[in-house]
Amino acid sequence: MQSQPEQQALFDGARLRDEALVRLARANPDWNKWIKEVAIHISNQNGEVSTDELHVVADQFNRHPKEPRAYGCAFRPAKHWLKLGYKTSKRPECHARPIAKWWYQGERTT
Prior knowledge:
Elements: H1 4-27, H2 29-46, H3 51-61, E1 81-88, E2 98-104
Antiparallel strand pairs: 1-2
Helix pairs in contact: 2-3
């Protein structure tokens, strides 16, 4: 069982992450719109997508954000995406860390 301060720290961390993603999306709206469309396309085609695939497409089109963490903006708003689990990143700079696999479930009103 987590203590009250530990639980609050988790909530604070999630809030700060979400606020950062909003700032990143606003900093480059054209790129953000494009990468979301790429993510949706890959998810619809393959049944899942991760940031690894987004990096491949960004490399192919030479369209990179100024801030690498901006790739996470593709999976917002979260209510449109379902996290399927994790896989090991194949990108060397990620040092084989786990990254989320996502499925686009579409825009919902609930």
